[in-house]
Amino acid sequence: MVGFEIVRQRLADPLVVSHTVVAEVALVTLRVSVNGRVGEGQVAVGPWTDEDASVVGECAAGMAAAMLAGAAEEPARGAPAAPTVAEVAAATEVGPLRAGLPTARMLAEMALLDLAGVVAGQPLWLLLGLRPPVPLRLWRTVSRGAVAGPIPGDRLKVKLGGPQDAATLELLAATARPDRAVVVDVNRGWDAADWRRLRDRVAAVRPTALEDPVADPRLLPEVRADLPGVPVLLDEGVTDLASAHESTVRADGVRRGPTAVGPHDPGCAGARRLIPSTPRPQPCPGGPVPHRSRLPEEKR
Length: 300
Description:
- By secondary structure, this protein is α/β, with parallel strands linked by helices.
- The protein has helices at 53-69, 85-94, 102-120, 124-127, 165-174, 192-205, 220-226, 241-250, 264-274; strands at 2-16, 21-34, 37-45, 73-74, 79-80, 140-142, 155-159, 181-185, 209-211, 232-234, 253-254.
């Protein structure tokens, strides 16, 4: 049995970036069940994607139903068996999860893997061969133009790309602390004139990283040369492994969760191919570090 529901969720604190305001997201929940055992997955669909929430739910439900229809029967029951973790992984390469909307593929995989964990009676991280879960330090995302004084927290992602950028950067530089990490994210909101006007202020902040600084990728060599030692990362426009690879050439890296371009297994495999063999921690297995929740206070 497969079904999905969509809940429209207003954000208590809308996120303002250079080109849009995120005031509402659609939470799409997919449930798959076999012999009374249920697996569940959930994704948020918002203005960061051109995918429609209803289409995501329908596509994910269709993929999951195809997986269940092709599953073997449980010998003891003569009823359909839940797909195993290995079968779900294989389906992302040659089966029902191989093609389609990235968010729908991720949602279907999420629910099917959850079901596999429920049936196996084991934590999903163990079935996937991941490291045991550990507490994660969250980043606090600050909307464009929202910096009006000292901001609590030691990990900040500050959105820029508007008329208050100079004042925001000056305040960040004045309140800098050695124990604080600041990622400046412009969401491609600057042109050449903006960058040349603000680059000294950016340098004064000494950011941990600068994300999507300019709309024109031809400006990236100039940006990188003006900020030696500061990684310039790309996010918007990275929709598949090919564009991720291109970003590692044009900039210093990609700030993108592997599952943003589809299911876990191919996403992580592709990420590993992009990362040279070094002793640094790898992003997979483990996944991206989540940002501060922007749901209403009671759900934070």
